[in-house]
Amino acid sequence: MTTRIAIVLYDGFDEMDAIAPYEVFSHAATRGCDLDVSLRTLDPTDQITASHGLRVEHDGPLADADPDILVVPGGGWNDRADESAWTEAQKGDLPETVADLHDRGATVAAVCTGGMLLAEAGVLDGRPAVTHAGAIDDLRDSDAEVVEARVVDDRDVLTAGGVTSGLDLALHLVERLCGEEVAEQVATEIEYEPRGEVRESEDEVHKS
């Protein structure tokens, strides 16, 4: 059965947080992993402008995607940019959508300060998590259990550290969904060696 993965974009998202996982999932799909990956937005718009000025077209509203896995990138949190994960947290629409999708059974995964949007959504309450080093104190101020790891896999909630850790998060998800062989093939194709610790929960799936 096809696993639907939606990467949600917003103005000010960090390019690598979203595009790196997109490439990993796309490579996995060409190697027989039954994935459908798309770039989505909350509101209808022609394009999104990322934190470093990249303008990105997308595949339509998130509401049309019905994802099994939602990936939330970070961007601009630490400097409180006008268009950023910080601004999305203040507006509240994206955290509300994250919480709703999680409540309906979607796995949610965050890269970098996208983890702070998961914290704002309440899905990290009482759960192990990590984010960009510059936002760790903010994460500690939430109800998450901050741990030292490159990627934290708490079954239906996953978080990753700074920007390039999105590659590790995506490769870990590919291994979960499609097996170690496919993940290794993708890592070889993109010439990337996964680094850092992946902390995996041994507990039953639990939701806040």
Overall description:
Strand 9 and strand 10 form a beta hairpin. This protein has helices at 15-30, 85-91, 93-103, 114-121, 136-140, 165-178, 180-189, and strands at residues 3-9, 35-41, 48-49, 55-56, 69-72, 107-110, 128-129, 145-146, 151-153, 157-160, 198-200. It has a single domain, classed as Class I glutamine amidotransferase (GATase) domain (Rossmann fold), CATH 3.40.50.880. It has a seven-stranded mixed sheet with strand order 2-1-5-6-10-9-11, sandwiched between helices. A two-stranded antiparallel ribbon has the order 3-4. The protein is α/β, with parallel strands linked by helices and 208 residues long. Helix 3 packs across helix 4 and helix 6 (165-178) packs antiparallel against helix 7.
Task: Please describe the structure with a list of short key phrases separated by commas or semicolons.
208 residues; alpha/beta; Rossmann fold; 7-stranded mixed sheet; 7 helices; 34% helix; disordered C terminus
In short:
By secondary structure, this protein is an alpha/beta fold. 34% of the residues lie in helices and 19% in strands.
Largest sheet properties: 7 strands, mixed
The CATH architecture assignment turns out to be 3-Layer(aba) Sandwich
Helix content: 25-40%
C-alpha termini separation: 27 Å
* Shape by Cα distribution: globular
From the helix content, strand content and strand pairing, which structural class follows?
A: alpha/beta
Radius of gyration from the alpha-carbon trace, in angstroms: 15 Å
**Beta-strand percentage range:** 15-25%
Order of helices and strands: EHEEEEHHEHEHEEEHHE
The name of the CATH superfamily reads Class I glutamine amidotransferase (GATase) domain
The helix tally amounts to 7
Q: What is the domain total for the residues?
A: 1
Note poorly predicted spans.
203-208
